[in-house]
Amino acid sequence: MMSSTNLKIAFKHLSSRLKQTLVAVLSVTFGISMYVFMNSFMTGANEVQTELAFSSMAHIRVYSDLPESVPSIAQPTGRDEVVFVRNEKILGDYDGIANAQPIVQFLNENEQVVAVTTQVNQNVTFRNGALKSNGQLSGVEAASEDRMFGLSEMMVEGDWNLLATRTDAIVLGIGLAKRLSVKNGDRLLVSTSEGTEKSLKVAGIIQTNQNNIDKNKAFVNSATARQLLLKNAGFCTDILANLKDYEAAIPVSESLSNSIPYKVEPWQEANEQLQAANGLRNVIALAVSLTILIVAGFGIYNIMNMTVNEKIKEIAILKAMGFDGRDITQIFLVQSLVIGLLGGLVGMVFGFGISRVVDSVPFEFAGMTTLPIIYSPKIYSLALGFGLVITFLAGYFPASKASKVDPVSIIRG
Amino acid sequence: MVLSVNNITKYFHEPETFQVLKDISFGVKKGEFVSLIGKSGCGKSTLLYILSTMDTDYEGQLTINGSLLTGKPQNELAKFRNEHIGFVFQFHYLLPEFSAVDNVMLPALKLGKKSSEEIRNDAMESLALLGLGEHAEKPSNKLSGGQQQRVAIARALINKPTIIMGDEPTGNLDSKNTKVVFDIFRQLARERGQTIIAVTHDDGFAANCDRIIEMVDGKIVTAI
Do B92 and A323 touch (CB under 8 A)? Predict the structure, then answer.
């Protein structure tokens, strides 16, 4: 499609003004390597944030969702009567999941699900002598909770597995323990809003680096928690499930909702803030890197315009020889495409190089060891794609202008 | 008639409307070596560029080789020009980054009727005939004015065009080179039957042609 003669002329133009060509290539290289680096970094940071959240958040949560409002029993009857109701009280049992076992089994059978655990969560008051603190008591199945969140590795004192063997064992978050001034082995009192009370022995202290756990939470055996809530075996407040691919949480939740009579909530819904923050980071990375590429495009536009102006006599001579407008357009467009392709390929290599360097910068914070970078073929191919599109557009307009040159006016001066 | 024009009229519009060509009609036979002469501003170069098919802003008809070219679209005219017209300019001749032989090859490469080896052979032959064999691979901007003009002539000849047109082909050359170029043209006309139309200021050049067409104020006054 593209004539070899035109290609020959185009390459001659590029090689005979090598410095100018290199400058153009460099501007594209810069734009593309920045695109690759910034998006790799931002996406890496997003992934770290998300995975961090999963150290205490499951992919899917099943729980009993209270209706927003309960209709009053005082409803208009349509007859000529006055209805008067005083001191309405809701007696029904709305909270929690009465019989968890069938649901747990159903979840385990789903091939997307890799781990399931149940929790019995309630708000309680902890008391150590005169010291008091409110907090959350989480009744767990020690083994499956540990499989899902790796909590046994985060113990700073004591042993997580005591929660399975002792009904009076309690594990406290390190901040909560400090506030109550308890140490491993001490006893403390837990009381609930139902009016029940239990004396528990501290079996361990845990540090997860997440404030909502460390400062507010304590763990007991789920049977113990049920006792405090005066509930039967089989009761729980939350069923948590983790999937093979956390990105699939929304569609999997939707299909599970059809068979589970409780709220099936994917993590994205529960943590809109995380999604919003991730989304914002992506937008910023994209906006900045595209801007750099567009600026590079303007540079190419400028360079190509200058080239066309400098070669205007040549264009006139070529036209006199019988080259037509389409040939002229091809000759100049090829030049900008070559610049775009070269700049793009080198840019991808540079982007990869910068990523490697940043990847090795130590950054020991919140579980990371180095700064977060991901290597995604999608980012690299989008970088090259954007680069080519922008250089094509930047080169098209000068090339089109060149094709419209009137040879007579140039030759005759 | 290898070329004929009928009732050619042209106006310039800047700085004000001015009629540069007034109802020009004439014909050129195959093998004629024609000079187009006249004072500066008489319209001879303007007429030449219309004949070359590069200028399409005129009234009247232009016919070359029996094809009516008036009204054809630019791309078709470019194709026709590539195959049938060889042009030699006064100043801006060659592409500076290319060698002499590459310059000569270009119109033939565009035409695409022969392979590039055949074209290269033709080009080398042509340059040898014009006494430039040893300079063939040199970049064209390293050649002298006279040598460059000879390369330009070789380029104009490469596709064996119907007509060679020249716009003051010797205007920028010294008397020695002018004679060389003129001799080449005359040889092409006499020995190869090449039709040539050249605009020139050089009376000596004109006097030695087959035919002189003189223009005054946009009209032909003598057609010998």
Answer: no
The CA distance from A30 to the nearest CA of chain B, in Å, is 30
CB B24 within 8 A of CB B3: no
Mean pLDDT of A121-128: 93
> What are the helix (H) ranges across A65-214?
101-109, 142-149, 162-165, 174-180, 211-214
Question: Closest chain A residue to B116 measured between Cα atoms?
Answer: A5
CB-based contacts of A114, cutoff 8 Å, min separation 6:
A242, A243, A244
Mean local confidence (pLDDT), A213-238: 91
Interface test with B, best of A6, A321, A335, A405 (most B CBs within 10 A): A321
Which residue out of B48, B53, B54 would a mutagenesis test of the A interface target, given it has the greatest number of A Cβ atoms within 10 Å?
B54
Q: Which of B45, B78, B95 sits opposite A322 (nearest CB)?
A: B78
Domain ranges within chain A, ordered by starting residue = 4-53+275-412, 60-72+93-267
What is d(CA A379, CA A35) in angstroms, rounded to the nearest whole number? 8
**Which amino acid, A174?**
I
Kindly report, residue by residue over A185-219, the tens digit of the pLDDT. Answer: 999 999 998 889 999 999 999 998 888 889 999 99
CB contact under 8 A, A411 and B89: yes
Q: Would you state the pLDDT for residue B173? A: 85
pLDDT of residue B208: 82
Q: Write the ipTM.
A: 0.91
Q: Do B87 and A316 touch (CB under 8 A)?
A: no
CB distance A160 to A171 below 8 Å: yes
Burial of A94 from C-beta contacts in 10 A (0-12 / 13-18 / 19+): exposed
Which among B44, B41, B64 is positioned nearest to B223, based on CA atoms? B44
Confidence band for A366, pLDDT divided at 50, 70 and 90: low
Of the pLDDT bands very low, low, confident and very high (cuts 50, 70, 90), residue A367 is low
Q: Minimal Cα distance from A411: which residue of B?
A: B92
Strand order from edge to edge, sheet including B195-199: B85-88, B163-167, B195-199, B33-38, B211-216, B219-223
A367: left (phi over 0), alpha (psi -120 to 50) or beta: left
**A391-405 burial, b for 16+ CB within 10 Å, e for fewer?**
bbebbbebbebbbeb
CB of A60 closer than 8 Å to CB of A115: no
